[in-house]
Amino acid sequence: MTDPQNARGRRTVIALLAATRHIIENDGMPALTMAAVAERAGVTRRAVYLHFASRTDLVTALYRSFAESENLAESLQVVWDAPDAVSGLRAWAAHLVRINLRVLAVLRALEQAQHTDPDAAALWRITQRNWLESSRRVVERLAREGTLAPHLTVDTATDLLWALMSLDLLDRLAHQRHWSNKRLTDQLTATYIAAFVAPS
Fold first, then answer.
1. What is the pTM of this model?
2. Helix 85-95 with 72-80: angle, nearest 10 deg
3. Cys bridge to 31: 20, 27, 39, 65, which one at CB 3.0-4.6 A?
């Protein structure tokens, strides 16, 4: 039998993370305070501190929750399990559109606040490190299989692929130009293949 107190605690945590995400997405990192989260979640500030000792803990928990709520590991596994390097590059484009568009508002808020907010800066550094490591993994497979464009080194291709993970690009095409996810995925894939894959 489920412990009612534990179940209530889990519901409170879910509500706090949802409130945190709402504030970041709609008002930005400067508006994120423990009091604002408590008000948005409909709980007391004491209830917030029972689950999260600090704002840093709260933001970090939200960031980590994306791995589960957005099925990040499963989405990335499709890239790593692709039958060949070019298929992996195609899967990488689909992964970026599928995942980053869902969390775009939070990522943009972190990016914009990184110079003034230590919590945002720490999480933005983690994001960039993860993106760079994943980009290198995709490129190194292209190189191993002999399909990396001959004018590119692994380092150069890694940097370029990482740079093309631009939030501005996703925001402009998806939200300002109203591209569908399929169109965006198809065009990113075509761009990546033209830029990174050796001609047949």
1. 0.87
2. 160
3. 27
